[in-house]
């Protein structure tokens, strides 16, 4: 009998690898509790993906957001966001009464209003914790989780507990003996904050249980979960407070040099991210053990991981912390191949996606290719002013690549195409007109109102193994649905899908394209 893995001549061929999927952060899902989470609506989204014959769900980082509510400025590289814990699932877990969440406040359906949402969720998480404390049967599973995640959980829970007693200010403004982790001060904090530490650990336990349920549901439908790991961590995080020796900090814990990128498409003064920089030479002495722990934790949650700012492993932009912008920085050598060899030795296969955008060089691509990592193509960039724009045209792709219509940092495809330029835009009117013309010619269409579907089709038709589309592009939404505007300190990360927006029409159209271009599960 001839199998699907055999050609007409009987010669075995490689298994099919082509797939497509949707980029959607869980907080952007619908739901009655102020933001999306990993509960019922997330499982319903998996059902929609399966019907649309999509095989991947990509998310932004799912860690506890810090400054500016940014998931890329998280309070921990390991923990899950409390905002993503489903209150409805807590009812089913037996930790919360249904009546407690029967009448939630009236929240916006298309934006996350972070302060009231966080307060509502915190209130109910604490009620669930009080119930958990009386439930001896749940203790065994909690203790098992705590033991498994001990390498980061204890420090994170302590960090969160102290932070709350200090008015939520950054850790460098805590009492000096606590911020510098002097043993007597840490022992006293653990003793006085025992219950608060237990609460923070409980929240992480709930996140873990609910995440596993979501991951199992995705596996059962043949859908990969793709995560996102920022190369740098936030200064105000449990990671930096616990391991200051791994970062360039002064005696009081403040960064002396910080991360960012030089002037680019998004900003004429560059991007001053503010993350402290790693002492890579020191990390190397332990075989980059902290990084191995971080990746192992991520690979428990996700099937693949997008590595944000992959360029930084080859070279990174070092900015003196005293500089107000990113202009006066300097390129520094990253850990390079030595790092990835160590990760392979520790973890085996590395199912990573290299976000190799920005100030790339041939050496960056050589590092990526040396370890067989797919790079990223953004179709919007094919028609702009990027010096490497030709590499973003589908006819120039290699198979080992992931193509996007746009990313969380870009405008939506409709917003990008119909941008009018001027103030608030990164492009002039002349540039926009030129890009529109080039796009329409390349896509062989005059139907501007269908531009998002023409872009999706071009990605689907390409040879790239994986094609990913922000859900905003599937829905044909404009700039009002943009997730992030780099360089803007507030107003980001709040967009939400309105209930019942992703309908049968969009699902059927995606399914047809997936079948046509052999990206469905066959």
Per-chain topology:
Blueprint: E1 19-23, H1 40-51, E2 56-58, H2 87-92, H3 114-133, H4 139-148, H5 150-165, H6 176-179, H7 183-192, H8 194-220, E3 224-230, H9 238-242, E4 257-261, E5 271-276, H10 280-285, H11 289-301, E6 304-308, E7 315-320, E8 330-333, H12 337-347, E9 352-354, H13 362-370, E10 375-378, E11 401-404, H14 413-417, H15 429-443, H16 451-461, E12 466-470, H17 471-474, H18 504-516
Parallel strand pairs: 1-2, 1-12, 2-3, 3-6, 6-9, 10-11, 11-12
Antiparallel strand pairs: 4-5, 4-7, 7-8
Helix pairs in contact: 4-5, 5-8, 11-12
Describe it.
This protein has helices at residues 40-51, 87-92, 114-133, 139-148, 150-165, 176-179, 183-192, 194-220, 238-242, 280-285, 289-301, 337-347, 362-370, 413-417, 429-443, 451-461, 471-474, 504-516, and strands spanning 19-23, 56-58, 224-230, 257-261, 271-276, 304-308, 315-320, 330-333, 352-354, 375-378, 401-404, 466-470. The chain has 522 residues and is of the alpha/beta class. It has a single domain, classed as Alpha-Beta Barrel (TIM Barrel). α4 packs across α5. The longest helix is centred in the middle third of the chain and has 27 residues, at 194-220. Residues 1-16 have low confidence and may be disordered.
